[in-house]
């Protein structure tokens, strides 16, 4: 049996054990996958303990993605750009690789599972925190016609725009300035603020939302998120929550560890059922 775990604080809510055990069953890997919840300053000690005891891979969630970034002995290019690590993997020679599979999870969910095109589309991303930093590279690599980043704190959006400038152009605005865009201007709006978690809406002017606007919320729950309920009330016909992103990032971690890409669809369906 090969040992894996997910580390976060809190961690009880994590669906990663469910997802990875389902992938393992599907691909006939013999694994254990535990949860660990160190104190907020306890990541390093936990990571050292886990890998010293023979652990082969770790998923990392809030608030430890930066600790994991610092812990890794090497980083993939996408983890370096994301400035955060959600996957640690023991390499053959014993060193520990840090990767970030969040952008892969989001973009494959949008383009492959949902089948929404990104190329030449106008995208609006709400938020400029760690969640956005983790996905901007993959979004820009799809070559959208425009990517606008709206954030409450403009300087944080501007900082991200300069980090990702070599990959593609990012326009930055405050929420107020969004009223300058025409009704239906954006093909896709992605909510990546943590507002949903608190049951709040990001202050997007409702004039922006047209029935043909695609909407994605990076959070998820048993019920539609406040953002998805709000856009539905404005007539939006096509929307999705972040459950597919969650399963997609897990699939890419699984591939990194086991060398085989599991099937996302059946696990998505099982997880949706499990959430109820
Ligand atoms: P995460 O890892 O989820 O991205 P984060 O790095 O703390 O967490 O970032 C949270 C994001 O949600 C930020 O963009 C934050 O805006 P600020 O940069 O201005 O703080 C945004 N956010 C949180 N609550 C919000 C709210 N009620 N309305 C609008 N934006 C909100």
Automatic annotation (TrEMBL):
Pathway: Metabolic intermediate biosynthesis; chorismate biosynthesis; chorismate from D-erythrose 4-phosphate and phosphoenolpyruvate: step 4/7. GO terms for molecular function: shikimate 3-dehydrogenase (NADP+) activity. Keywords: Amino-acid biosynthesis, Aromatic amino acid biosynthesis, NADP, Oxidoreductase. Pfam families: SDH_C (PF18317), Shikimate_DH (PF01488), Shikimate_dh_N (PF08501). It catalyses: shikimate + NADP(+) = 3-dehydroshikimate + NADPH + H(+). InterPro entries: Aminoacid_DH-like_N_sf (IPR046346), NAD(P)-bd_dom_sf (IPR036291), SDH_C (IPR041121), Shikimate_DH (IPR011342), Shikimate_DH-bd_N (IPR013708), Shikimate_DH_fam (IPR022893), Shikm_DH/Glu-tRNA_Rdtase (IPR006151). Gene3D superfamilies: Leucine Dehydrogenase, chain A, domain 1, NAD(P)-binding Rossmann-like Domain. Its EC number is 1.1.1.25. It is an enzyme of class 1 (oxidoreductase). Residues 242-272 form the SDH C-terminal domain. Shikimate binds at residues 14-16, 61, 86, 102, 220, 249. Involved in the biosynthesis of the chorismate, which leads to the biosynthesis of aromatic amino acids. Catalyzes the reversible NADPH linked reduction of 3-dehydroshikimate (DHSA) to yield shikimate (SA). Homodimer. Belongs to the shikimate dehydrogenase family. This is Shikimate dehydrogenase (NADP(+)).
């Amino acid at each position: 049996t090969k040992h894996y775990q997910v580390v976060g604080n809190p961690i009880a809510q994590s669906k990663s054990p469910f997802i990875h055990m389902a992938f393992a069953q599907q691909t006939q890997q013999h694994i254990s996958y535990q949860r660990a919840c160190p104190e907020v300053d306890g990541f390093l000690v936990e990571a050292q303990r886990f890998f010293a005891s023979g652990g082969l891979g770790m998923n990392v969630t809030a608030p430890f993605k930066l600790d994991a970034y610092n812990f890794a002995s090497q980083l993939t290019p996408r983890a370096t750009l994301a400035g955060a690590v959600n996957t640690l993997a023991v390499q053959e020679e014993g060193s520990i690789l840090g990767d970030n599979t969040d952008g892969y999870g989001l973009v494959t969910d949008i383009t492959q599972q949902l089948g929404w095109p990104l190329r030449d589309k106008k995208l609006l991303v709400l938020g400029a925190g760690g969640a956005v930093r983790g996905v901007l590279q993959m979004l820009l690599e799809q070559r959208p016609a425009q990517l606008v980043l709206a954030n409450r704190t403009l300087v944080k959006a501007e900082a991200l725009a300069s980090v990702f400038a070599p990959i593609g152009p990012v326009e930055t605005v405050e929420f107020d300035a969004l009223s300058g865009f025409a009704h239906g201007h954006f093909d896709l709006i992605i909510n990546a603020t943590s507002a949903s978690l608190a049951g709040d809406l990001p202050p997007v002017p409702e004039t922006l939302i047209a029935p043909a606007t695609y909407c994605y919320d990076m959070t998820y729950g048993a019920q539609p998120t406040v953002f998805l309920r709000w856009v539905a009330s404005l007539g939006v016909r096509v929307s999705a929550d972040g459950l597919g992103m969650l399963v997609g990032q897990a699939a890419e971690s699984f591939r990194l560890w086991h060398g085989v890409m599991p099937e996302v669809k059946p696990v998505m369906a099982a997880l949706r059922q499990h959430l109820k």
